[in-house]
Design goal:
The chain contains three helices and six strands; from the N terminus they run ααββαββββ. By secondary structure, it is of the alpha+beta class.
């Protein structure tokens, strides 16, 4: 996706549709959308690339993983508690709080190019991974074209 503010909104729309398709519980969708928004905004603001990559998938039963890549090696940032009157600097603070509240964790790759977050999903019998109409069908931000990826994932990339 282009490293532009409009991409944050597009990533949220794709993430919302994917969450609903995968039957992610409604109560967790808002957390996913906030994390996607903040990680995308951070990548756009601090990355030096003209694009960002956004990906989410279910790597195992009961776990949802989100990754945002800015393709810019850098020192991974630290969470800072913003002052009450600060207009900026809340993104990673919010990601940290939301992930912790949901029982998940987050961080950056060692080279700082990718932010990631994992969130636990309920393991109730009522939650189940969607059945794929075809074994290797997924969605992409490039439109509704099929690719050879798992239906329990989405990729939004340049």
């Amino acid at each position: 996706m282009p490293a532009a503010a409009a991409s944050v909104r597009q990533a949220r729309r794709i993430a919302r549709a994917w969450c609903r398709y995968c039957r992610v519980p409604e109560g967790l969708i808002d957390s996913v959308l906030l994390i996607v928004s903040e990680m995308c905004a951070n990548a756009i603001l601090h990355g030096r690339s003209d694009s960002i990559g956004v990906r989410a998938w279910l790597p195992s039963f009961g776990v949802l993983r989100i990754e945002v890549t800015d393709y810019t090696p850098s020192q991974p940032p630290a969470v800072q508690a913003p002052s009450a009157d600060s207009e900026n600097g809340r993104g990673l603070f919010l990601v940290d709080a939301v992930a912790a509240d949901a029982g998940g964790n987050w961080g950056f790759t060692a080279d700082g190019t990718r932010a990631w977050c994992t969130l636990p999903l309920p393991t109730k019998a009522s939650y189940q991974r969607p059945a794929a109409p075809e074994p290797d069908h997924s969605f992409s931000a490039r439109g509704s074209q099929a690719s050879t990826r798992d239906p329990a994932s989405f990729h939004a990339h340049p």
